[in-house]
Amino acid sequence: MLSAPLMLGAVLLDHHLGEPKRWHPLVGFGRFADHLEKTLNAGEQRRLRGVLAWAVAVLPLTLVAWTLASLPMIGWVCSLLLLYLAIGLRSLAEHARPISEALHNDDLAQARLYVSYIVSRQTAELDAPAVACAATESVLENGSDAVFAALFWFALLGAPGVVLYRLSNTLDAMWGYRNARFGQFGWAAARLDDVLNYLPARLTALTYALCGRTRQALHCWRRQAPSWDSPNAGPVMAAGAGALNVRLGGPAVYHGELHQRPVLGSGPVAEATDIDRAVRLVRRGVLLWLLVLLAIWGLLYA
Length: 302
Hints:
By secondary structure, the chain is mainly alpha-helical. The protein contains eleven helices and four strands. Helix 8 (187-210) packs across helix 11.
């Protein structure tokens, strides 16, 4: 019953406080996950070991979240705080802003450094448009992963849903690589994250379309997303690029290997202002979600 007001409260807390500077639970969870991987990712049956590791890391904490949310009188406070810790709207802007500012100041070296904090591709040789492209892509994709998907699972399943999703997404970021070390062990983390993000990613793509150049965004989503290697990032970034009328994608180097990625979106090549526009697009989308959910809540329970 209180999911919509709690979502509004969590977004406001994130806006005013940002992420905790010390003792963020996800940092501690990351250390635990790293220790778990080093312990279990050895020997035979690594795919099965990866399933076990995912279960050990995620399910007990999801149960804890369910227990806290069920507490009489204070359960709603626990739910509010858990959602606040799971979303990263302000953090998204705080990571994007220094990149945009460095590009506006023609400080390419600093821009490359700042963008390296939020993308996994090699950044040392990127020119200014490539830095802007990488940052804009990151804002659009992380808007889906760190904001809209968290809100979706909270609206659907409350605190247990958002904790299950956020921990799964963190494990995918840590283990979901297609390389010798993680190809088998991280299989479960990557597949489960794909499943959990399937609906939120498409709702995010639709949100970007509604908050920008709608017809162009829907066209880019339909035509370009199927060629992207990620089933969820493709719709999000294609629709986002179309909504912003900017061109993203293209070649990028990951771990020393050149990836010929398809072009996404339409319009001119990305520049510094497009990073800021992407942040504003995510914010408009969050406002749209909150207005719709609060209106539904008001009709049902007021």
